[in-house]
Amino acid sequence: MSGQSAPSGQSAPPTQRDLAQAFADALLAYGDWIAGLPEREISIGGTKFSMIAVCGLLDQFADELPQHVFDKLRSYMDPVSHSDLIVELAVNCS
After folding, report:
1. How far is residue 79's CA from residue 87's CA, in Å, rounded to a whole number?
2. Residue 30 pLDDT > 80, yes or no?
């Protein structure tokens, strides 16, 4: 449907770029979030998603993370409890 707009009242489906930006926004929001409080909401094409929902939307993509996003994600990981994930991300940065 390239070049076509969404029907009136509906937004176009998010692009990979929209989802990548939403993931970066979710990572930044996570840094300010306090466990036990409602998750911050991230807007994608005018629709609000929880941080965890944004991550779920990205499950279908295997593109490599931009370095600044990877670095932020890595900064939240504990070397002991997240050691397996840290190794996996070092091998497959997506």
Report:
1. 10
2. yes
Give the separation between CA 71 and CA 3, rounded to whole angstroms.
35
Residues near 39 by Cβ (< 8 Å), separated by ≥ 6? 29, 33, 50, 51, 52
pLDDT surpasses 60 at 85? yes
Domain locations in the chain? 16-91
Is the dihedral angle over the CA atoms 82, 87, 58, 33 positive or is it negative?
Answer: positive
Residue range 47-61: mean pLDDT, rounded: 88
Q: H-type helices in the chain, by residue range?
A: 16-32, 51-57, 67-75, 83-91
β-partners of residue 41 are 50
pTM: 0.72
CA–CA distance from 64 to each of 3, 33, 38, 68, 94 (Å)? 27, 25, 29, 11, 4
